[in-house]
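Sharing a chain and its predicted structure for anyone who wants a worked example. Both blocks are below, sequence first, tokens second.
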Amino acid sequence: MHTEDIALDRLIRALRDRIRPALTRPVGTLEVAAWDVGGEPVGAATGLRAPYRPFAIGQPWGRPWDTTWFRVRATVPDPPPGDLELVVDLGWRDDSMPGFQAEALAYDADGTVLKAVQPRNNWVPVRGPDVEVFLEAAANPQFFGAHIEQFRPTPLGDVHTAGNEPLYTLAAAAVVVRDAAVAGLIADLELVAGLIAEPAVDSTLRAVATRALQRAIDTLDARGLDVPAVREPLAVVLDSPADGHPHRISATGHAHIDSAWLWPLRETRRKVARTVANVLQLMDAGHDLVHVMSAAQHWEWLREDHPALFERARERVAEGRFVPVGGMWVESDTVLPGGEAMVRQFTEGQRYFLEHFGTTSRVAWLPDSFGYSGALPQIVRQAGIEYFLTQKISWNRVNRFPHHTLHWVGIDGTGVFTHFPPADTYNGELTAKELIYTAENFREKGAASRSLIPFGFGDGGGGPTREMLARAARAADQQGLPRVRVETPEAFFDAARAEYPDPPQWFGELYLELHRGTLTSQAAMKRGNRRAEHLLRAAELWATTAMVTGAAAYPYDALRAAWRTVLLHQFHDILPGSSIRWVHRAARQTYEQLIRTLEELIGAAQTALAGDGTAPVTFNAAPVEIAGTPAGGARLGPAVTYPAATVHGLTLTSETTAVTLATDGTITSVRDLATGTEAIAPGGRAGLLQLHPDYPAHWDAWDVDRHYRASVTDVTDVQSLEVSVTEDGAARAVIERRFASSAVRQTVTVRPGQPGVEIVLEVDWHEQQRLLKLGFDVDVHAERARFETQFGHVTRPTHENTSWDAARFEVAAHRWVHVGEPVGVALANDATYGHEVRRVARHGGGMATSLRATLVRGPQFPDPQTDQGRHEFRFHLLAAATVADAVAAGYRLNLPPVERPGVAAVEPLVRLEGDANVLIEAVKPADDRSGDVVVRLYESHGVPGRVTLRTAFPTAGLSLTDLLERHVADTGPELRLRPFQIVTVRLRR
């Protein structure tokens, strides 16, 4: 070990003092000029013609989020042999953080994109003798890294608060000649050093490598930098083949580009261009590179902003070297989006790839989302995808996931061949250390031999570098390393499945034991998304009905644009609430405008359908009947009336439900009058607000750590409590509360004709590093609870028998949670996702079930203003509830009927006869704009279902399709569904 350490120490100094300095040599003379944009970025046509001023090396530049264009001119009278390059240092603070600080896109004088410059990739190829390069440099703040205090509040997260002081100093710019032989020697030395440093390498090989390295440095000491002579002692290691190493690695070029995170959407557009420019330069230079890019949105931004670059990339797509992957509009969160939105992520993405590249993706590519819904296997398979890839589950904090290659089976029984790269990163660099770790970490050793590494700088983009490709070439057949081959994900998956056709199975969701706070952070993102999803459902339904009946034309372009806006904002750092303030401020504005647009589209369609009149017409876009209004139709006439509710003291009573409040405004009883069932545990309370400290160990906006439970404050102080019967016959209690710097108006309502109790919370939140929960002590004994997810529900334990159970202390639900076997308590919500259900000790002895929803948080990083301000939350608690009751309550709360003046009822365009557990999720025109109607339905209870589909218009036939609306089989109106199955039917007209 001592000899190995000495050899490695000698190498470090030799590289620093004698070898790396010889890699490049400055040539020629150079001058720099600059132009500050002073606002939003401009195109190349403007930047190239700007009024430049002289600029000196060492001069500060770049106010936060601003752009500076640099013009670099150089003269190299007699260009020497070698690669001529412009190298730039924009003033980077930490060269290990590419994509997280200043970066630039380089153009020639004609506006042709050349390449990007970033830390550790700071060069641009040029030609002499006269050089002119323009650099569009973005002064993006660096929020964390080796020299930055991590996870601290900062004003730099919004252009409105970031200030005007320059962030960077132009540290260097020079035209150099690069010695390719020295670069090759550096790669050779790093590989040998990597073998020496890794204990997993055979001890004999490490000894041989140590001696070879010592002799190489001895040669350097004696003869200077004579590259062939220094390399010659290394040949005994470098020229030795892999000798049947049992592991095979597919290396795929990749640059994870967060659609927004520590930068706004507008900066991501530029990151995409920079990354693509880097990739194309490597391919044009002859490097053996296969590169993937997911997110159809990123491709579309590239097409809009840099059409020439897009066309160059499309040529490489045709060659099979630049691979559109994933099949999604963006790499979205998969836990929070609703069912139809999750479908549209894939249909919009796959259709875009088909339209522009003539192909669809066979691989779902989601390396960095925060857990994976159990509905996803069925959705990806129905979208024409065969394989699934992620690595995020390696971030689990408690339980190590037992597999890297597996068959992941969803809630409906659909499976997808899945791989988790054992490198435990999606930003691979292909070092010897990383390759050796990959082989050693692979959990299917002995049964399978293949894994995949996505390599290239990512999160902020950048992609592969020539140094990484040099490592890949050396690792293709190198003793001591697994064999590495640069190839497509499809090639890897095809070979892996052929080798391992019967892998272990994993059933249900892939729960990430980290980042649980993303279910709650930035509550406005959750509300905006939930509202937009349901308005889109209504807009499509009524516009399709109007189209088929001839009442109005279908607004194809407007609704497609609306969907793409929603899908973009479901990206896994926007909807989860983990981006900087700028991102969420802009998203709130976008949601507001989008909701107005959708309401206008819905109003126009409903007006066309109801006709010109003054009679009340009630529209119901939900797939369940509500108050006498048919699912998917509209009723003419006044609302159905029920006996008014009553108030006696603090008890609110309707013909279905009696609710009693304590003097502190909490609920002590919710009783179903038909069955006599009591929902609230003896001595327990419902509607109880509870405040906890919220200091996660690391990732503020992302995490809720288990230790938050150690301290709790019940919010029971009452400023006022008033009970009354409203004009519409509802019994209502209004409770005003204040705590710390915040206030809550809590309204408890029992409505005629509607079972259960509604709770509305208007929260004026001004707490930081606290979280607020709404709790219910329910009188139900059940070992498991059900939580709605896309197209069904997942079942999770209410106990903590195992470490896997205990790790699920904060979990996701969409519109409802149900506790009971099979009858119990249901809680529906209109915009809340974070929940917990657990067995707890009763106040008077015994056990109860605690059901709590997380409302708001106050994390400091990356947005110190997270959740500050006003919020509204709606809940509906049902006693004696089945899963069917929970499903219906979820739809009623999120798709309430809408009344408009008119003259005519509207017959549902399509309806189902038969089992009530099968529901219609979407009614829309076919994407090919043929005029056919597409109906998507699913089984919602987890049991088989049988229905007959009826239409209000003549059809030429029905066919089953996949999610891309491609024909699968002809069918009649009678349909059978397995539990949680999604079925798409095309009605030909």
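Comments welcome. The chain has a mean pLDDT of 97.
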